[in-house]
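Worked example

This section walks through a single chain of length 162. The input is the sequence exactly as stored; nothing has been trimmed or padded.
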Amino acid sequence: MTIDAPLCLHRATVRPDWLDYNGHMNEAYYVLVFSHATDAFMDFAGQHSEYRKRSNTSIYTLETHVMYLQEVSEGGAVRVETQLLGHDEKRYRLFHSMYHAGSGDLLATGEHMLVHVDISGPKSAPFPPEIADRLAAIRAAHAGLPVPKQAGRAIALPGERK
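Given that input, the structure is written out below as tokens.
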């Protein structure tokens, strides 16, 4: 099986109801597009709906950091590239880059920390071997990619403690 580096698993077109009062995609819909890209990654990693139902597990988002770099208007076609930055026995860290499908301009980035959860608790739970192995294969395929400059950033004004 081939694992692209980065993965391109999700595309979307900006709908009229996604626009804000400035006529551009509202910030909530950037997060929605990234959420759909995360869902596509979960499917690619073997954590599809059948797996979640059978194992009584899911993925919960622990933290998200979005950077809005350029505006996108109604009808704008976007594609999301996804990079697995790291993982451990229960979590993974994804980095999504949203590009304008036509111009290739970088529109936004989203960095997400997710945790595997046993729904019966709910409580964090280790990935089973087949998912852990799949994550390791994806990470190996992505190991040669540079870490995006937006990854790992904190929000602070100049002079504030981080």
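What to look for: The beta strands are 7-13, 57-68, 77-87, 91-100, 106-118, 123-124.
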